[in-house]
Amino acid sequence: MELRQLEYLLAVVEEASFTRAAARLHVTQPGVSSQIRQLERELGQRLLDRTGRTVRPTEVGATVLEYARSALASVAGARLAVDEYTGLLRGQVAVGTVTLAPELDLPGLLASFHRRHPAVDLSLRESGSDELAAALTAGRLDAAVLAPDRTPPPGVELQIIADEPLVVAVSRDDPFARSGRDRLALTELADRTLITFTHTSGTRGVIDAACAAAGFRPRIAFEASDPRVLARLAAHGMGAAILPEPIARDHPEELHVLSLDPAVRGRLALAWRTAETESPAARAFLSHARTALTTTAPPPP
């Protein structure tokens, strides 16, 4: 019995197909079939039911599968232990993010980690904060940069890496701009067409909650996940944008910026599962990210 045969068996069961398993393993389908037939001859039992439209494990095969998973996990653990001892880190790290402000250099952080640990496979996906939190708790992500609600979801720990005021930005010919004011009561937005983040954003949740506390439901006409898009829409006179202050003030020729009363703040956080991960690569990335993002995070208000 060879580890390769157990790996092939696991792949066929998980993919429910010899063809898909071969593609996943980057080998030929006859090679996969041959190795599994050899394993079945050695054990004297059929491990896979090939009679249906999809391949399924037989009763004996399901039992063998448990031992196969355990054996492959033990081998992977032994390899990781040796790699840690020799200083060569391997593995996979999956990171998620919302659309970020330009000053938060997540690509630079990923690149610096890759230079330290070139044998670790990194992946990055973009999504809304709620989806990222769900992927974290389900184990599909090792870390995420998201816009948190007031309390983190169960099983997720946060490190705040940005905490900025949200402001209103309007075009230079907007009535708010012509008035010369630099501060605005939140209730004055009740009858305005608003431009802000998508409903999946944690920052949008903060905005909706602030408007509800002020006694109105915002009239949102334009949504985007990228704050720079919000700024451009406001500059073209499409409405009043609610966005982070640094983004708004980056367009002094096109936008007039007003502070909100009461103040509303938008936050970004590095998030990870509270339970310690078994992956040395993920632990190393979290340590790297927490240190790097601490040095770049603004001081608390």
UniProtKB/TrEMBL annotation:
Listed transmembrane segments: none
Highest taxon of source: Bacteria
DNA-binding listed as a keyword: yes
Keyword DNA-binding: yes
Family: Belongs to the LysR transcriptional regulatory family.
PANTHER family linked to this entry: HTH-TYPE TRANSCRIPTIONAL REGULATOR CYNR, TRANSCRIPTIONAL DUAL REGULATOR HCAR-RELATED
Protein name in UniProt: LysR substrate-binding domain-containing protein
